[in-house]
Design goal:
Layout lengths: L14 H18 L3 H13 L4
Length: 52
C-alpha cells in the first residue's frame, strides 16, 4: 500500500510535457545552430591532423 494522498494513475502519454520537451529541444537547436560551422571546421582540421 502506498502512502499517498492520491490514487496512482496508469501510465498514459502526457501531451503537455511532450510539447514542452519539443519546444526546449527546438530552442536549444536554434541557439546552437550558429556554432555548427565552427564545430565542423574544428572537426575537419582535427581529422586532417590525424586526430582519432
Amino acid at each position: 500500500m502506498t502512502r499517498s494522498a492520491t490514487q496512482p494513475n496508469p501510465a498514459k502519454p502526457n501531451l503537455e510535457m511532450n510539447l514542452i520537451g519539443l519546444l526546449l529541444a527546438a530552442g536549444t537547436l536554434f541557439l546552437l545552430l550558429p556554432l555548427l560551422p565552427f564545430l565542423a571546421a574544428f572537426w575537419v582540421v582535427d581529422k586532417l591532423r590525424g586526430g582519432e
